[in-house]
Design brief:
The protein is mainly beta. About 5% of the residues lie in helices and about 60% in strands.
């Protein structure tokens, strides 16, 4: 896409701030709705990315994409700025307005490098297609992706595991009816091309990739991908499978290689592909590039850190808001099991940053949390204060997502390697889309669940 952009060349301030803002012209579309008819034109795509690295090995980012204009809808820098800074107002898909319509996406990302004997990088992205519940900070039509990358397993292997799950309404729109696509392909996750064009369905995908530094030179890479669209009773999608085998090696400042893919798509059709490639050799372009040969962090001599597991109980209460036509109801407090798995590393004399996934049994339905920010402040004694922000998946008839956050106290080393803690938490407007025939169908497409309470747990670290 022809585009112009503005960004900083070096990180700003001690927080390592970086930014990029751009505007681009997308490919021509003949399906732009305006004044009740379809028009042709070139939609605009604008975006902004803000990121920071306040501590070595930990980064946090905010991203926004806005599709607007095209044909009779025009498309000016003013339209872009309005949508960027007032998303709740300008996300409205008004087919008769040039100013009050935009197709928006946003996400928050987090990445943490853990420098242990077996170093790894944990990363996650929580994204939304428009806002939710009329609040600009809540993401609607959510998608959650997470991954872990081991840049070195043994002497010759590396491993990446990655998974994504999304609600419906991604890459489809009532005004820009080609969706957020360019030359017929979606802009962003590969799942958007694996379905009937224009069919907004939820689903999930997973990927495992194993690399081997071959004894005869070069790298062999084996990858498996799978994807499953949700079936709402209309299109009988099947599970997607793909196996890839590739080989590459450096040669005179470039990388040359080839790849063989084979599998079956979501319609049950088999496919295969044989490709060769030539790439510029950039050794710093992979997530493990910050790791030195001894398993530490480049420029950071402290490789200490902890892996840990949590076990405990929660007491949580649900406030249910099914539709705009039904009253909000409070349920009883529910007590259930809580478990978690995570890693943390020191970033200052008294502060630790970590990554964590946690599981709660909420009345027979799972509540899974992925923390984007997990911070602990250690006092001089055994006490510590916790603060966290994460993304929750609530396993209902179809999954519901939102942010959750909380604070807590921790008594460190009540026994060797054992901590005890309590926290208070709030799951904010966990949203489930009305996509099944049995769901209520009103003007509001979501049901919302506000969940609040506390957790008491024991943490074993090693």
């Amino acid at each position: 896409m022809p585009s112009v952009s503005l960004s900083n060349y070096e990180p700003l301030t001690r927080l390592g701030l970086s930014y990029e803002i751009f505007e681009a012209r997308m490919s021509k579309s003949d399906h732009i709705l305006y004044q009740g008819t379809l028009a042709s034109g070139y939609p605009r795509l604008g975006g902004i990315q803000l990121s920071m690295e306040p501590a070595s090995g930990w980064s946090l980012g905010l991203n926004r994409l806005v599709q607007f204009g095209g044909g009779p809808r025009g498309g000016s820098a003013t339209d872009l700025l309005r949508a960027l800074f007032n998303p709740s107002k300008y996300q409205s898909p008004d087919p008769n307005s040039r100013q009050n319509a935009s197709n928006q996406e946003a996400s928050v990302t987090s990445s943490l490098l853990f420098p242990g004997k077996v170093p790894f990088v944990v990363y996650a992205e929580y994204a939304g297609e428009d806002t939710s519940r009329g609040r600009s900070y809540l993401l609607g039509n959510s998608a959650l992706s997470w991954g872990v990358h081991f840049p070195r397993l043994g002497k010759r292997f590396d491993l990446t595991l990655e998974a994504s799950e999304w609600q419906n309404a991604w890459y489809v729109h009532s005004v820009w009816q080609d969706g957020m696509t360019n030359d017929g392909l979606v802009i962003s996750n590969w799942f958007g091309d694996q379905r009937v064009f224009g069919d907004g369905v939820g689903g999930r995908s997973a990927m495992a990739r194993l690399g081997w530094d071959a004894w005869f030179g070069g790298q062999v890479q084996l990858r498996y991908r799978t994807l499953e669209n949700q079936v709402y009773g209309v299109i009988p999608y099947q599970r997607y499978h793909e196996v890839s085998v590739g080989y590459s090696r450096p040669w005179k400042g470039i990388i040359i290689g080839g790849e063989l893919d084979s599998g079956s798509d979501v319609f049950g059709r088999s496919f295969s592909r044989l490709a060769g490639f030539v790439r510029y050799d950039n050794p710093n372009a992979h997530p493990g590039a910050a790791l030195d040969s001894e398993g530490g962090v480049a420029g950071d001599g402290d490789t200490s850190g902890q892996l840990f597991v949590d076990a405990g109980v929660h007491t949580l209460r649900i406030r249910t808001d099914l539709t705009e036509l039904t009253p909000k109801t409070y349920g009883p407090f529910i007590t259930g099991a809580h478990v978690g798995l995570g890693a943390r590393r020191p970033v200052s004399d008294h502060g630790d940053l970590g990554a964590r996934v946690e599981f709660d049994d909420l009345g027979g339905k799972s509540l899974t949390g992925v923390r984007l920010i997990d911070y602990r402040y250690r006092f001089a004694g055994p006490m510590g204060v916790l603060g966290f922000l994460g993304v929750v998946r609530y396993a209902l008839a179809t999954p519901a997502f939102s942010f959750y956050y909380g604070v807590g106290l921790q008594w460190r080393d009540i026994l060797p390697h054992l901590d005890a803690g309590v926290d208070a938490r709030f799951y904010d407007s966990v949203a489930r889309r009305h996509v099944l025939p049995s769901d209520p169908h009103t003007n509001r497409p979501d049901s919302f669940y506000d969940i609040s309470g506390g957790v008491a747990s024991l943490t074993y670290h090693f």
